[in-house]
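Ticket #471: bound-state structure for adenosine-5'-diphosphate.
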Amino acid sequence: MSLKRKNSPKTSLALRLSCLHALVLGACSLFSFLAVYTAMVSNVHHRVDERLRHEHSEVASLFSLNAISGIQETLTRLAHAEGTDQVFYRLLDERGVLLAESDAGAWTGLEVEQPALSAAVAGQPFYDGAVVGNSREQARVLYARLSERMILQVALRTAREMQPIRDLRQLFFTFGVLGLVFALIVGWFIVKRALFPLKNMTSTALMIAEGNLEARVEPASRDRELDHLAQAFNLMLDRIQLFVRELREMNDSLAHDLRTVLARINLGAGRLLASRPISEEQESLTVAMVQDSAELLGMLNTVMDLSEINTRIVQPQFAPVDISELSAELFEFFEATAREKQITMQLHGADQAVVLGDRSRLRRALANLLDNAIKYTPEGGRVTVEVRHDKERVTFSVTDSGIGIPAEAQPFIFDRFYRADKSRSSDGHGLGLSLAAAIIQLHGGAIHVQSKEGSGSVFSVSLPQSTPASS
Ligand code: ADP
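RESOLUTION: The complex was predicted; output attached.
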């Protein structure tokens, strides 16, 4: 038996859990990295800002000595001393008009930001970030008052200080990707191992579905939770088994009692019928009693057989059955009934169409199809029985030219007690096809119908061919 995949999720639980595990691990690592990264960047800014303040106070001390006349020269000299690509000075008046600046060659893109200037004019030193030069490098900029009406803009490149942080970021992303792959693989194995007992439970459940009510789950040796689940599962199975046994015993004794009573009625009615003298009315009543009790007995046997097959409580004993030979036997049996209705019967057989099965049950299933074909075909019609086989399967089909089955009824004809149209035939209880389908399923086969109302029906049964190895 296999699990039906109806509405089943597309991914496995193990895969989803290991992805989730990797995702959570990745998110935690990213979060920690961001915290460290932010702290390091702010530390660098803090140190560079300290240097900016230092540069500012150096210019301020020189400015008080040289005043405006020598400031251009002072700024150029100071920038050259530290490297013109590392530090830049710009002296502005309170409206932002340039008064003096050091070598600006390496500082393209460094603008005067109006809000920063206004803050500095108001006496508030303003720190800012900027991207400068052709290679678009990071820099820190300080705007601060030098005198009542003059603002000094000092800029320092931060590339050197930021280098270790950039290296760390690179390392994080390289090892982060590798770590995620590793977490995914390790997570997959861990989850697979953790879910292993569930596999055990699934196979036990499938064994039970096959009819083996004795099957039980092995207790989990390591995990307490799974051990509890296994115990609960086994307890549930004990209860179900007990319940099924009680139900079966009750059904058996009920069926046995019913059978005995029906058989007694049937026998009694038969004797009454044989006794003389008997009035016409008594005779017809007794005949009805004999027929009804026989019919009820047959129905009871069918229902019992159906439930035995469906619950698989009794394991079937299979032996090779030649379907060609069985078909010929059935053909002969039904020919007389067909002749009474002037129905032409034909048999197309095949040699060696052998399957592994329960002969009497298979006979019952196939006989049912033939019985229906004759029952639902009007006088003068045709019924053809055909047996075919290929390497893997044996196919038995019955084609009739009868009344056919309405399309809307076809999906239900294999249901218990279903009759397509109760007015079409008086006899029958809608159990024949459900028993036939259950028997064919028990043999690992399939039964199909093709029918058109008013033109006839084709019932075909396909069964796995018995190979020397399987028999
Ligand atoms: P029943 O005892 O009523 O024949 P079945 O289970 O054998 O019960 O069949 C179910 C229903 O399917 C029947 O009532 C009938 O309406 C329809 N049916 C089965 N076989 C045929 C057939 N060969 N031709 C037409 N209708 C059929």
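RESOLUTION NOTES: Residues 1-6 have pLDDT under 50 and may be disordered.
TICKET STATUS: resolved
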